[in-house]
Amino acid sequence: MNPETKDLYQEMILDHYKKPRNFLRLSQPSHKADGHNPLCGDKVTIFLNLENGMIQDIAFQGSGCAISTASASMMTEQLKGKTLPEAEILFQHFHNLLTHENADASRESLGKLKVFEGVREFPMRVKCATLAWHTLKAAQDNQEQPISTEKT
Amino acid sequence: MSSPYKKDFPILHQTVYGKPLVYLDSAASTQKPSVMIDRLSNFLKTDYANIHRGVYKLSQKSTELYEKARKNVQHFIHAAEPSEIVFVRGTTEAINLIAQTFGKMRVHEGDEVLISGMEHHSNIVPWQILCDEKKATLKIIPILEDGTLDMHAFAALMSEKTKLVSVVHVSNALGTVNPVEKIIHMAHERSIPVVVDGAQSAAHLPIDVQRMDCDFFVFSGHKVYGPTGVGVLYGKKSHLKAMPVYQGGGEMIESVTFEKTTYKQAPEKFEAGTPDIMGAVALSASLDYVREIGIQNIMEHETALLAYAHEQLNKISGLRVIGTAAEKSGVISFVLDDAHPHDIATIVDREGIAVRAGNHCAQPVMERFGVPATTRASFGLYNDQEDADALVKAILRVQEIFK
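ok -> structure tokens follow
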């Protein structure tokens, strides 16, 4: 396997793909949104229990590639117990890590999520990694009415 | 056994991440032979000018070459007359043109348009738009488990309400070769006209529109080893004559006053504005190249290669081919138990192999077979068994990573 591929498909990502965490429905979510990348067939639904601006519980369902699944899994792990502003900052850092040359600051604050840095070498896969995050945003932003989000 | 034609395609002689490029995405677009590239370059260096209007020498030369290209297409698909060949941008534009002119004439409220469940979006959406406009109904001929058309269902779906049938010749997602002559015969028995989408067949099977007796046949230049931006709409003379105009502008008019404008006959009637002159000339060179090799030879080479690839892929446990018709052309779509097409395509890319992952602009097909996406390897005349072997090796590598 060449080094970049090894970076992208490293053990942690494969582990989260084969055994995704928080891969369930919440029975009474306060927010929910669907994310879909019709170009490649990745589908994700994010369930949230938001209380007083804090993510009490978060889970996901869906089917997709290793990158999108692992990303959703690790995102839900990281965000449990975080406030919405904290989640937003993490998303900015995550996006930065995947798309910008100088991502040192971002890398530091991301904890486990920094394993996705390898996606930078695969620009066509960035949308896979960010799908869950964009869907999460959609879940938040539509506090009254969770909607279906289609990403292209 | 190497393909003798690989050397004709300069782009194929490169390495990708240090590995030789193995191009298995001809269904998305074919690569271009040197003769076409050179012909295009020479045309632009010596003969190019706008066509039809100029009195000067260059324009005359350019016009001759453009019209020669039209005749070349006519002969390539065995049409009766060059005036039955309209140059358009591609298959998608051709189908939209037919839907918005012929379709508008023939389809009215309460009528039905029949397409199949294996169509590319370009042979679905224009008909949806037409049916919406006209308050007509779009009906779908179902696909069987092996990816073939349910011909019994097709027969049952046709009624006096059916005003048009549009089907793909070769499915870009499944590889199925549809029995178009039979379909056309059955439709014509009930006076229903048939549009055949030849995007995936024109480069791989001999096309004879007169023997097929299709009312329309459409295909794209860039899938027949030609340039992007040019495609062909073939229509029977009587249809083209009766159809209203599509785009208005220069070239397609006889005379223009603010009170009244009169139009030319086909094909000019449907070629508004300056056409893709370079595209037509380059396409003509590509068709010459294909004709020189012989479409029959190409078909035999590709049929053998496809059979070999199927055989090798079927040996891989956990791999399922989607689309197992007895008669297939050019395309193998598959899914792997443990890995998503996107991941497969990324990993094999790093081995130098170009395949496509996704829904191949055929979301309904994916839904029919219960898969979110497939990985698709598709062959052109420059592919050979070595390419198939490289693909197999790369898939096994994917399985190692994902086991």
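The longest strand of chain A covers residues 42-51.
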